[in-house]
Design goal:
By secondary structure, the protein is α+β, with helices and mostly antiparallel strands. Helix content is 47%, strand content 16%. It is elongated. InterPro entries: Tad2-like_dom (IPR021361), Y16Q-like (IPR054052).
């Protein structure tokens, strides 16, 4: 899915990640968006002299490959224009059966699309195919991408 759809999903509480990221178990989540009655003792807020009630604005945090949470993550230009974003961890949530099936369908489609893309981009067998067959496979990958984006949009709007 593209970043816009992924952002809508993260706004709804989902964790998102890119298939193209090298590090295992990396993801982005929405943090903040709430008010606290006072700074937590020992926190940087307390050390800065912030007292009383204050709001922590919504923002994105990244859990990196080393397991460290990076608050205030900002996507790169590559992240903004990538189409390999996906929602993670949704299957374990309590969705009605019809929504759970859509999530499972997207996971399966994403897996198949990843394999097809790898075949197109790096398999010598693809290079040996005639131009018409190459065109059909590329068209298939484009259709699968469109279909994945439709499913991702539906999932991003699940309540």
């Amino acid at each position: 899915m593209n970043f816009g759809l992924a952002l809508e999903a993260v706004k709804q509480g989902a964790k998102i990640a890119r298939s193209g990221w090298n590090g295992a178990n990396q993801f982005v989540l929405k943090a903040g968006g709430y008010t606290v009655s006072e700074a937590r003792p020992g926190s940087d807020y307390e050390r800065a002299g912030i007292t009383g009630e204050f709001t922590i604005a919504p923002h994105l945090d990244l859990k990196n490959a080393q397991g460290i949470m990076q608050p205030g993550w900002v996507p790169s230009q590559g992240d903004l224009f990538a189409d390999d974003w996906h929602v993670i961890g949704l299957a374990s949530q309590n969705f009605p059966p019809h929504q759970a099936r859509v999530i499972e369908e997207l996971d399966q489609l994403r897996d198949r699309l990843s394999k097809l893309t790898a075949f197109i981009e790096g398999n010598p067998v693809f290079a040996g195919l005639d131009a018409n067959e190459k065109g059909r496979l590329i068209l298939q990958a484009e259709a699968m991408t469109d279909y994945a984006n439709v499913l991702a949009s539906r999932i991003a709007n699940f309540k």
